[in-house]
Each structure stands twice: as C-alpha cells, then as structure tokens.
Design brief:
By secondary structure, the chain is mainly β. It is built from two helices and 14 strands, in the order βαβββββαββββββββ. Strands 5-6-3-14-13-12-11 form a seven-stranded mixed sheet, with no helix packed on it. A five-stranded antiparallel sheet has the order 4-8-9-10-7. β1, α1 and β2 form a beta-alpha-beta unit. The protein is globular. The N and C termini lie far apart (about 65 Å).
Length: about 190
C-alpha cells in the first residue's frame, strides 16, 4: 500500500492517481474577496496561516476592486486561532455568518495578515494589522476581516477602522459571502 502526497492544480489528475495509490489531494484556488465602494485595493502581506498540507501562493490585487488569495481550501482551527489572536469579536466582521455579531470563526481555510490600502476618488487609506480569513458556511466560502484597530457596531453590522493615524475607514457587509462595503470617513453614505 503506497502513499504519496500530491499538491497539484489538476484535481482530475489527483483523483485518477487515487485509483492506484493512497493519495492526499490538495489544489490551489483563486479565492476572491471584493471591496465595494473603493476604486482599488492592495495588500502587503506580512504573514499567513493555512491548514496543514494546503498550498499557498500569495495575495494579488484584482480589478473588482479586491484581492485574490491563491490558496487551498480546507478548514481547520489553526488559521482561525491565528486570525483571533489579539482581537475580540468586536474587532471582526464575518460575511454571511449564522449567529450573533459576537462570534469569531471556529475554522478557517486560511488567513492572511498585513497592511491593506484602499484607494478612493480623493485619497488612499492604509489600514495596518488587517487580518483577512476565509471560512466555510453552507455551500459558500465566506470571508472575515479583523484588526485590533477596528471596532464594531453590532446593531448595524459595521466596523470603524482607525487607519493612517486618525483616518477612519468604515467596513460593512456586502451583497454576498465575499464582498465587504468600504467607505472613507470623508465620503457621505447614500
């Protein structure tokens, strides 16, 4: 009984190999998170956490505007523990979660940490020590955003993040499991 581990972008090849040997299949995915309300988003990653054995290939900006985390998807407590380190439930916002605002994820596929920059019409805002994590709920892979510099308002499910000194960024739930709404404190909400 031979056992090998395959990390491959081709899941079909891995499934085929399972017919002949014991194989652990992992695949890398494009995991998109969007930020409605800004013109562009970028992320300078300082560290990441991913479930054991899963591939990880970094974070890039997209034209949505948003980010693409190239990583495997397998939920575990390790990335969730890293995401929760140094924050409380009031410092995080999950998309399409079941339960109260006052919950934090039990399992995440991965989490990335660093500085996020959001460009608006008149200015860009850089928010330090941002954590982004992807979990799983029902049939969807939902996202989490957290930081010790963000503070939530449970009644309206919005967080205020203190960025670039005293500059504020407002973050709220978007239309789906991978979209946050962001707005600069100088913009008027319509």
């Amino acid at each position: 009984n031979r056992s090998i581990s395959v990390t491959n972008r081709s899941l079909a090849a891995c499934v085929f190999a399972k017919l002949f040997v014991s194989v652990s299949c992992t695949s890398e995915h494009d995991n998109y998170v969007d930020f409605a309300g800004c013109n562009s988003a970028s992320f300078v990653m300082s560290k990441y956490s991913i479930s054991q054995g899963q591939p990880f290939d970094g974070v890039t900006s997209t034209s949505h505007p948003g980010l693409d985390v190239k990583a495997g998807r397998h939920g575990s407590s390790g990335p969730a523990s890293d995401f929760k380190a140094g924050i409380q439930a009031i410092n995080a916002l999950g998309l399409k979660i079941v339960g109260a605002w006052t919950t934090l994820p039990g399992d995440l596929n991965f989490a990335v940490f660093g500085d996020a920059t959001f460009a608006f019409e008149d200015a860009s805002i850089t928010c330090r020590d941002i954590g982004l994590g992807q979990g799983h709920h029902d049939t969807a892979n939902n996202w989490w955003l957290g930081s010790p510099h963000c503070f939530g308002v449970p009644d309206i499910k919005e967080m205020t993040c203190l960025c670039d000194g005293l500059r504020k960024l407002y973050v709220s739930q978007g239309d789906n499991d991978h979209q946050f709404n962001v707005r600069d404190s100088t913009e008027v909400m319509v």
